[in-house]
Structures are given as C-alpha cells and as structure tokens.
Amino acid sequence: MITFIICLAALIIAYFTYGRYLERLVAINPEAATPCRRLADGVDYIELPRWRVFLIQLLNIAGTGPIFGAILGACFGPVAFIWITLGGIFFGAMHDFISGVMLTRDDGRSLPELLGDLLGNHVRTFLRWFTIALMILVGAVFLVSPAQLLNTLINSMSVNMWMCIIVVYYLLATLLPVDKIIGRLYPLFGAAMLVMAAGLLWVIFTQDYTVPELNFHNYHAKGLPLIPTLCITIACGAISGFHATQSPMMARCIGSERHCRSVFYGAMITESVIALIWAAIAIAFFHGPDGLNAALGEHGNSAAWVVNEITSTTMGRFGAILAILGVVAAPITSGDTAFRSARLIVADMFNLDQKPLLKRLYVCIPLFAIGFTVANIDFDIIWRYFAWSNQALAGFTLWGIYLWLRLRGHRGYLALIPAVIMTYITGCFMFSSSQFLGITNPWISYPAAAVTTAAVVCAVLHHLPHIDRTSLKF
User: Fold this and answer.
1) Which of 111, 179, 220, 460 is most deeply packed, by most CB within 10 A?
2) Range 245-262 burial, b when 16+ CB lie within 10 A, else e
3) Would you tell me how many other CB atoms lie within 10 Å of the CB of residue 212?
4) Dist. CA 57–CA 337, nearest whole Å
5) What does the alpha-carbon distance between residue 63 and residue 48 come to, in Å, rounded to a whole number?
6) In this structure, are residues 64 and 330 in contact, taking their beta carbons and an 8 Å threshold?
7) Cα dihedral sign, 36-42-46-49
8) Do residues 269 and 54 touch, judged by C-beta distance below 8 A?
9) Are 394 and 240 in contact (CB under 8 A)?
10) Is residue 96 within 8 Å of 243, Cβ to Cβ?
11) Alpha carbon of 386 to those of 97, 155, 279, 305, 393: distances in Å?
12) Cβ neighbours of residue 155 closer than 8 Å, sequence gap 6 or more
C-alpha cells in the first residue's frame, strides 16, 4: 500500500510543482488572445468555460485507455505503478501541456501542421496520412468495442446494428458545433469516470484489500518483456500520442493561456491517477498479479469483464451502472472526437473552410466509410497496431517539443530524454514484435533499436539549424 500511496501523492504534487515549472518555462501569457477569440466561427472555434474544457479534454484523451490499459498493464505486477507515475508526470503530462500550449499559440491547427513546421515538410506529409490513419483506427476500435458490449448487455440487436447506431451518433458529433453534443454530454461522462475512480479509491482504503509493494518481478502469464511491452500496454495512463491529436479541439475553445495547465497538464495527471487506481484495485481484488493473470486467462483476456466484476462486487448496483458508463460511453466519446479530429486534419491539409455544413459533410463521409470498413477487421489486429502507432506518434511529438524548446533558447533536456526513451521503446517493439519484424532474439532486437534511436537523434540535431524560424507563429 505504501508504494501506491507514494505514487498517488507524487502525481498530485507534480501538478502544483512540475506543472507550475513548465508554466514558467513556456512563459504563459494570460493577456494573449486565444484562437477562440480571434477566429470564432460558431463551429470549432467557440469559447467554453475552463471546467467544461477540462472535462471534455479528459474524455477526449481517456476513453477506456486508463482503465483497460492499466488492468492489462497490472498483469506485469506493481512495477506498473512506476511507469504510470513517472510516465504520467515527466512524459505524458509534459507532452500534453507543452504541445497544448504550442497548438493554442498556433491557432489550434492540427498536429501534423504544427510538427511539419518544426520537423520539415517530408515529416509533415508523412504525419498527415499517418495521423489520419491513426484517427480512423481509434474510431474503428471505439466503434467495435462499445457495439460488442451493448450487444452483450442488450442482445435484442446485432453488433452491426449497434455499430450503425453509433456511427450515426459519431456523424452528428463530428458535424455539429463543438458546444452542441460534445460540450453538453462529455462533462457528464467525465464526472461519472471521476466518481467511479473516487469510489474505487475509497474501496482500496476502507475494505480488506491489499495492494502489494513495489518489486521488479515480471508476473505476466505469457512472459512478455517489461521493455517494451509494458510501455506499449499502458499508454493513455502514462503517455499517448493520441492526446496531442485531440488537443487542437480544446486549443480552439480555451479562453486564456492561463487555463492550459489545468486543461492539458491537469487532464493527463487526472488520467494517470485513474490508471493508478485501476492498476491497484485490479491487483488487489484478485489477490495479486498471478490471480489477475489467471482471471483474465479464464475470461478471454477481457478487461471489460474485470471492470464489471470489480465494480459490481465492491460498489453494488451503483458500481455496475458506472461500469456500463465507463466501458460503453467512454470509448464512444473518444471515437467521435477521433473522427472529428480527422475532419480537422483533412480540412487543414487542404485548406477547407469548415464553417459551411456541406463542406464538413464532404470530409466526413469518406472518413466514416473507411472507418466502418476497418471496423470489420479482427478487433485484436486493429488494437495491436493502434497501440504501437499511438506511442510512435508520441515520439514524433516529443521531438517537436524538443526542437520548439531549443528554438526558444532552452536546453530542452526535459523533452529530449522522454523523446529518446519513447523512440527506443517503439523501435524495440517494431524489431521484436511478431506484428512487425518478429526478431525474438533480444541480443539482436535491443541493439538494433538502440542504433535506430541513435540515428534519429543525429537526424534531429542535424535538422535543428535548418528550421525556417520565419514560418513559426509561436
């Protein structure tokens, strides 16, 4: 329990310490006119209250990530607590906050356009299509999983029928002004996620459950290596490239730069707290990592089953209702914003005015047609490639943050170290995983990832003096 309490306290304290330091580092200017005030269009650029923007951002970046990812990551043992805590503070929250500030100062343009100005036009072109593909993967993942869950709960309709209903909702949420559906429903679902996490925290402290102390033994039933697998499995609770694709939407709604720490850094810290709670209760409820592995093995590796089992047992009917909201509403809220983000990326790529409804429709229809097609591919395959793509994009964003800090006269080590580590992790996964090259010999895959990482570092450092500073707005 002591390890868990220390990690929980560290996350909360970091918001008021490291978060404040980052705020000074980027020179937050409360008087600066934010995009929603300069570019208000009644569709995407709409000023919203800070509390509402925070809850929307939390739902945008979370989905089931800090729940399912934390449960599956807990299979490795209490070492998951360390990755969630250190990753959340020094990787994820820093990544989300500084990229959020950059996007706010860059008129809320989509992430590929921002990173393209820093990393070059070739990277811009690659990231445009890579990010659109990632958004479609996210949309497909969070189209299938809630449809399957709804079919299990209410089996009067088939999975395909539920998917069609969800697609209609996605289309409306993607097309309508941000304050109509997203601005009204997300705060309610965000509050439900927070209440569920608070309830489980109360259970941990008041009921007879034992959260084990830190040890570095790998408990995973299949013996998957901690590096890189744990860092890929627990993404949203520690760091996720998907987050920076969602931040432009809220960068267009923030009324003051002063709100950036609470919206971007605060939402990520909150997500890490949620992930930490779920990792702890998953291990404690099943009496240790071995028990969790066994339970998952008996139920098809279903994290959704674990959520339902824990909440219904510890919190009764109220917990079961919250579980339904968590495993159904949460992925839907990430799915619709993924498609909305894809619309904005395409619009920025082709300079399409998104104020007219018809032009929004022109962009949305092909995206949804592709997404629905992808959703019919085996779910496990979609999820595996999404997880790697997600962390690879985080690496690109971290390198962009490093260059931005260097251009502002800072040494940039706080971004350089996470960028190097995430580049190595995604490279190592690419070499060792059967999804890619499948080199199972660690004496080959690990050094190959190190050489690849060194090459990326050299390329970024060589590129730094050649950045066109006149094109930068921030």
Assistant:
1) 111
2) bbbbbbbbbbebbbbbbb
3) 18
4) 10
5) 21
6) yes
7) positive
8) no
9) yes
10) yes
11) 23, 28, 21, 22, 10
12) none
Amino acid at 188: L
Which amino acid type is present at position 377? I
User: What end-to-end distance do the CA atoms of the chain give, in Å?
Assistant: 44
pTM: 0.93
Each residue of 318-348: pLDDT tens digit?
777 776 776 677 788 888 888 999 999 999 9
Calpha distance 254→266 (Å, rounded): 14
Cα–Cα nearest to 270, from 21, 59, 1: 59
Q: Give the whole-angstrom CA distance, residue 230 versus residue 70.
A: 10
CB atoms within 10 A of CB 85: 25
**Which tokens sit at 126?**
């690659």
Tokens at 31, concatenated: 């008087």
Residue with tokens 């990812």: 69
**What is the chain's length?**
474
Element of type H or E holding 468? none
Architecture (CATH level 2) of domain 2-385: Up-down Bundle (1.20)
C-alpha dist (Å) from residue 64 to 381, 404, 427, 446 = 18, 31, 25, 30
**Two structure tokens written together for 279:** 């990792």
CA angle 230, 341, 198 (to 5 degrees): 50
Q: Which amino acid is at 331?
A: P
In sequence order, the 6+-apart residues with CB closer than 8 A to the CB of 63 are 142, 236, 330, 331, 333, 334, 335
Q: Do 39 and 107 contact (CB within 8 A), yes or no? A: yes
pLDDT in tens, 368-411: 888 888 877 765 566 667 788 889 999 999 999 999 999 998 98
Rounded CA-CA distance 137/195 in Å is: 29
Tokens matching residue 322: 């919250």
* Token pair in block for residue 107: 């008129």
Compute how many other C-beta atoms are within 10 angstroms of the C-beta atom of residue 39: 13
Alpha carbons 116 and 120: distance in angstroms, whole number:
5
Radius of gyration of the chain (CA): 21
The model's pLDDT over 46-103, given as tens digits with 9 standing for 90+, comes to 999 999 999 999 988 887 778 888 999 999 999 999 999 999 999 999 999 999 999 9
CB contact at 8 A, 257 and 32: yes
Matching residue, tokens 């190190």: 450
Q: Which residues contact 460 (CB under 8 A, 6 or more apart)?
A: 119, 399, 402, 403
- Rounded alpha-carbon distances, angstroms, from residue 157 to 38, 139, 160, 305: 47, 21, 8, 21
